Amino acid sequence: MQRLLYIIIYPALWFTSVLPMSILYIKSSVLYQLTYHIFGYRKKVVFENLKLAFPSKTEAERTQIAKGFYKHLCDLIFETIKSLTISENQIRKRFTIENIELLEKLYNNNRSILLMAGHYGNWEWSGIVNKMMQHQGFAVYKPLDNKQFDSLVKKIRSRFGATIVPNTRITKVLYRYKKEETTTLTYILSDQTPRPDAFKHREDFMGINVPVFTGTEELAKLLDFTLLYFKVEKVKRGYYKATFVPVSENPKEDTDYKNTRKFLDLLEAQIKEEPAYYLWSHKRWKHRGK
């Protein structure tokens, strides 16, 4: 059944992906009307999250953020579909990186990198960084139960040269490359919600005490990799710019959880500045402290 569903859906996704961006954004605007005004996709979750994160804002202000989020989410859906066929030249115009020279400097110093990112802006187009660097690129993901759609996700995220590695295998893979003296850069979405029975630490995120994912920091300590934050900003519809922000050059020397806190501070600053571009439909605060 899952294979049949994939056989039906994939051609529609592919034919959608070859349409011009102008047409895709018309479709996105229609989808916004459906998801926000008609079906109310995860609307309760979104408004609960916004109330938790911005208790001092008025209901009208939170509604404005929610509408902006749904518009961005619908754009992101079609931008992700476009990833199936978008050319390198086109994505380079739409996703620019301000200080790529920092990667060159770290590469020349034989420094491998763990790139910490959040569900902010467009994380699906971040793979273009692989075309701009000398590091061997990896991206960490959580495999899907549906094998066909899991393969599709890997295909999209590896189009520009990254090797997609399951979260359960990334430590072994990076350790092997380190032994081979291969300099790597690994992209990790580090604002994931850990299982309530599988976390080591809690922090305040947007003023709310929650379990936090500390795996990126722990991996950096174990392998002695440089930590960077990937700050992605939405310039306008369909256009993004990204900046590498140093988190720690020598994480082995840092106290536990210091760099997880720095990551959260950097992500919070972006959310507070432009809140509509965060993934508010994600149940990030479901295990919050009482």
Keywords, please?
45% helix, 9 strands, 10 helices, globular, two-stranded antiparallel ribbon, 290 residues, alpha/beta
Structural commentary:
The mean pLDDT is 94. It contains ten helices and nine strands. It has helices spanning 2-17, 21-38, 43-53, 59-82, 88-94, 101-108, 147-157, 170-179, 215-223, 258-273, and strands at residues 95-97, 113-117, 136-141, 163-166, 184-189, 202-205, 208-211, 226-236, 239-248. Helix 1 (2-17) crosses helix 4 (59-82) and helix 3 (43-53) crosses helix 4. It has one domain. It is globular, with a radius of gyration of 19 Å. Helix 7 links the parallel strand 3 and strand 4. With 290 residues, it is an alpha/beta fold. A seven-stranded mixed beta sheet has the order 1-9-8-2-5-3-4. Strands 6-7 form a two-stranded antiparallel sheet. The protein is 45% helix and 18% strand.
Radius of gyration: 19 Å
Overall outline: globular
Show unreliable segments: none
Gap between N and C termini, in Å?
A: 42 Å
How many DSSP helices?
A: 10
- Strand-residue fraction? 15-25%
Order of helices and strands: HHHHHEHEEHEHEEEHEEH
Question: How does the major sheet shape up?
Answer: 7 strands, mixed
**Number of DSSP strands?**
9
Please give the share of residues in helix: 40-55%
Strand order of the largest sheet: 1-9-8-2-5-3-4
Class by alpha and beta content: alpha/beta
Please indicate the count of domains: 1
What integer is the average pLDDT?
94
